[in-house]
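Students often ask why we bother encoding 3D structure as a string. The short answer is that it lets us treat folding as translation between two languages. Here is a chain of 178 residues written in the first language.
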Amino acid sequence: MILLELFLSFFKIGLFTIGGGYAMLALIQKEIVHYGWMTSHEFVDIVGIAEMTPGPIAINAATFIGFRSAGVTGSLIATLAVILPSFISVLAVSRFWGRYKDFSKVQAVFGGVRPAVAGLIMTAAVLLGLASFQAVEAGFRLRTVLIAAAVFFLIHFRKLDPIKVLLICALIGLFVFK
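And here it is in the second language, the structure alphabet:
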């Protein structure tokens, strides 16, 4: 039964989320908490792990959650389920895109989808931010806010490499949150 739940849940995530991995985070969190596969606090850790490992965040999260819930078979099922809708969609769209991309109705659809994707990503950022701040002890919350603000500044304004920033923050975490 858990394999079917994993497949249906991650297929739904892949099917109903437009805009990439970050847009999927809110739906992934809702699903895994609903089924009791993880808590919201554990989810934040999974996002961190998925960020630090190579590959798309949604696939990494699906693989990890599937493995934790049902072993290797669960990881294969969850991973397949999350990528299957995109695979089918890309095949369908690629067949017709060149012919219909300039149609006004197609452009109108994308005019509605673009801001929705931005809203989904903002929702994921807020959910992760709130869960991150709740996951740390009260004495560390100010430090958490300062690190988050510093990361935003370094990446957005200083254009530092996000990988380097993540590695630096991991080292800072060893000293600040021990």
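Translate back mentally: The radius of gyration is 18 Å. Keep this in mind for the problem set.
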